[in-house]
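Quick note —
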Amino acid sequence: MTKSNKGILLAICGASLWGASGAGAQLIFSHTSMTASWLVAVRLIFAGLIMTAIGLVRNPGQTKGLLTNRGDLGILIAFTFLGMLNSQFTYMKAVQTSNAPTATVIQYLQPVLIIVWFTLRNRAWPRRLDILSITIALVGTFFLVTGGHLNSLSLTPIALFWGLMCALAAAIYTVLPQGLLSRYDTLTVCGLGMLIGGICMSPVLVLTPLPNMTALDWGTLVYIVIFGTILAYTLFLSSINYISPAVTGMLSAFEPLVATTLAVAFLGTKLTAASVLGSLLIILCTLIQSLPLKRILDLLHLAKH
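Predicted structure written out below.
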């Protein structure tokens, strides 16, 4: 197997495991009393413990350095609450109030929010490609939210709220830790972020009664923690060692694809033509942003000559 094929396989597997975890959460929420807070607390504590332990074994100096550097620790704490914990909680609330496909797709509005942020920060007009992406994403959101009808909503206001908060959290999660990731291993940063967030959420496990769950529910919970979090992060981030971030970004489209397929096939989720169109347009926005535009233009220029 070539390096590029290995990287593609790792990215597809990682994104697919993420998508399946969303469907798993929808399954648990549909017939148990489990709250989003309880699930997030369990997910972050156990995934954070395991990922931090792996980081300590691989490079103990990085963990110590990150925790003892005041400036970097401050950024890590901000990333934990504004990015890691925020994105996990809002995503689960979006799944709980709508369904896994919708929550996962709305999360893909994050490139639009990142474009807007950098436009305001740099006080410069966005590129034509960015304007095209924003337009496509807004049209897709219109179809997803309204079903193509101006006088009705396909999503409840609360589901739309949590979906948009999830997209905002995902944008913060992407932008905020860039400095840390240039100095520390990704597994160390994410593991500590999860662990700190999980510890802060731990009172929920004491204050909330243990949900009444079947063996299938417990198995699904284990899947969400082990495969849908730890393995998904590891595989997806490992793919960057073999393929470009642009290709990795495009292959992340497997996340909503898998979430939608599982929700429709096994959970009885019904999708309208308008919601499918809206979802495809929002995912297209992400794919456009992942394209190595400069390289494509250079190749086209060479082809003309």
